[in-house]
Write a structure and sequence with these properties.
Layout (H helix, E strand, L loop, with lengths): L2 H21 L3 H14 L6 H34 L14 H4 E4 L2 E4 H14 L2
Antiparallel strand pairs: 1-2
Helix pairs in contact: 1-2, 2-3
């Protein structure tokens, strides 16, 4: 077996591992395999495929990162609209009609009613 045959087998294995990583949504693993294939195929026609795989992996990592960031922002937004007394959360759409806002504090309708009842029961 010559060095060229060994290199071709190595590149084939890297491409196979990269394809498997893509299929399993393991984009960093796919990127590592694609970079190794790029290094192994420098100066050959196969290098274009390796560069394409690197680009694909980077694009998918970027998309996944953006989706995670968006999801985290949505979760943070949801957590912003919680009653400071009972802890019940409200969505963006429900918060204006169910929460009264103060400086860094929110109170929901049921807690307002409970507070009102407590205040007026003490004075009776």
């Amino acid at each position: 077996m010559t060095a060229i045959d060994t290199n071709e087998q190595f590149v084939y294995i890297l491409k196979t591992m990269s394809a498997k990583a893509f299929a399993e949504n393991k984009y960093f693993d796919a990127l590592e395999c694609a970079i190794a294939a790029h290094i192994a195929t420098r100066g050959t026609e196969e290098n274009k495929t390796a560069l394409f795989l690197i680009g694909q992996a980077c694009d998918l990592i970027r998309l996944e990162s953006t989706a995670k960031s968006r999801k985290m922002r949505e979760q943070e937004a949801d957590s912003q609209f919680k009653c400071s007394f009972c802890g019940k959360g409200y969505s963006d759409a429900d918060a204006p009609k169910n929460l009264v806002a103060g400086p860094n504090v929110f109170i929901c309708r049921p807690c307002v009613k409970s507070a009102y009842d407590v205040m007026f029961q003490e004075h009776k």
